[in-house]
Amino acid sequence: MQHARRFLHQSGGVRLIPQTRSERHLSGSEREEISRGIAAGESARQLAKRLGRSPSTVSREIARNGGRDRYRAASADAAAYARGRRPKQAKLTQRPALRALVKAKLALCWSPEQIAGWLRRHFPGDTFMQISPEAIYLSLYDPRRRQAIDRSLTQRLRDGDLPIRGATVTITPDGAATFTRRGWSTTIT
Prior knowledge:
- By secondary structure, the chain is mainly alpha-helical.
- Helix content is 49%, strand content 7%.
- The protein has a 3-stranded antiparallel β-sheet with strand order 1-2-3, with no helix packed on it.
- A hairpin with a 5-residue loop joins strand 1 (168-171) and strand 2 (177-181).
C-alpha cells in the first residue's frame, strides 16, 4: 500500500481524462446559430429545423440560458460545460439545512422514501429543500459521498444490510456495485 501511495505522490496523482462532448450535445457553433437566429426573430422550431435538431432541444437550450431576451452563445456554452462536469458534489453536501433535516429524520428511523415525501409536502415550491430517496441512499452508501451523511445512520434504517429493501447487491471486480429490485437497477461505480 505504501508503494502505491509513494508512486501516486511522485507521479502527481491519477491523471483525469479530459472532458469531451458527445455529438448528441449542442456545439459552440450551434449555440452561435441559435443566438443569431434569436436576434433575427426566428422561432425555436425554425432554428431546430435549420440545425437538424429537435425543436424541444432548442427550446430547452434557450429557456435554460436566460430566455430569448438574454441568450448569449458564449455564456450558454460555458454553463453547459460546467453542468456536465463530473464528479458532482452531493446535494446534501451543498445544502446544510437539507442535510440537517435528513439526518434528523434518519435518526428517527424514517426511511429515505418517507423523508423525500415529507420534504415534498412541507417544502412544495422549494427545490433546494427536496431530495430523492435515491440521493439519500447514495449519500449513505456511496464511498465518494461519505462526507454528506454519517454512515452510522444506516443502522437506523429498517433493513441495515441493504440500502433498498428486497434489493440484491452485486459487486463487480472493478468495485462497482449494482442494486437490483423488481425490474430496475442502478449502478454505483
